[in-house]
Amino acid sequence: MNIEKSHRNDDMPLLAVDIQNLTKIYNPSKGKTVEALNNINMKVPQGSIFGILGPNGAGKSTLINILAGLVVKTSGIAKIWNFDIERETRRARAAIGVVPQEVSLDAFFSPREALELQAGLYGVPKKERRTDEILEAIGLTEKANADARSLSGGMKRRLLIGKALVHAPPVVVLDEPTAGVDVELRRQLWDYVRDLNKAGTTILLTTHYLKEAEKMCDTIAIIDQGQMVACDATPALIERLDQRTLIITIKEKLHKLPDNLNDFSVTLTTPIKLTFEFSPSKTSTGEIITAVQKQMLTIVDLQTLDSDLEDVFIRLTNLNG
Asked: pLDDT by residue (tens digit) across 56-99?
């Protein structure tokens, strides 16, 4: 993906998105209210790939729709590229492009027509439009004049990304971009996202594929029940769980755990395998190995499994529940 337009310059704000105490309450004038967002604080560094994760109904869509100008906040401050979404609405909206989760395209418009129409809606002068460049970038040059209904699912997804790029926004939101697509298409879409980011575009990403978020995102925020339960650099977020698994394979066959190992959280998963769950901050791998050797057991193999983003996600959302 060759994106010539770059947002890397000396005039860029340090934060692509700055959210302070953002709250959204539905039906505040009626008897029953729903607090979709409760004092959300979030700072998205420019040039980053920032993940927003959470269970269904957590408030992710509400947050995105507020940034996109589709939902009005109840209170708080939200800035996109340093433009306040309330006081500088037009400039804030011009600074963001949103790729929706649902594929919604006019079946009889060609990709070229769809991009031209979108550019017109954003007021991009014809001489400044980058339709051919975007078509090439999203791999649709050969399908530029075909009806949208003839495009494959992957092509339609790419066209949605193209529509979000017509006004050259410095911030792009991808809402579940790989939902319901096959593995190969998912890989291609992530390649597009990486190239877009390398060209200077800040990416806000929501996804249910936690392994992908762990691999793609510099920073991850986890929202649950309208509240921010975590926000940190991805490696730091995973380290925060402080949980590790050590699997020790021994030569001897056991029918039950030795009593002297009961001080550890250990399971005899097979007659020759001991699985230890431990916190690295409290217990070292060496302590466990020494304890096993003291039982006159011969260690033939060691395997360490670190926590991943899925473990963190489950732990934090369960705690909040």
From this structure: 889 999 999 999 999 999 999 999 999 999 999 999 999 999 99
| Confidence at 41, pLDDT banded by 50, 70, 90 | very high
Q: Tell me, what amino acid is at 295?
A: Q
Burial 47-69 (b: 16+ CB within 10 A, else e): bbbbbbbbbeebbbbbbbbbbbb
Fold classification of 241-308 (topology level): Alpha-Beta Plaits (3.30.70)
Non-local CB neighbours of 70 within 8 Å, separated by 6+ positions: none
We find that the CATH architecture of domain 15-232 is 3-Layer(aba) Sandwich (3.40)
Nearest to 96 by CA among 139, 63, 128: 63
What is the rounded distance in angstroms from the CA atom of residue 68 to the CA atom of residue 84?
Answer: 12
**CA pair distance 97, 117, nearest whole angstrom:** 15
Helix axes 183-198, 153-165, angle to 10 degrees: 20
92 and 83 in contact (C-beta within 8 Å)?
A: yes
Cα distance between residue 29 and residue 115, in whole Å? 41
**Per the confidence metrics, is the pTM higher than 0.90?**
no
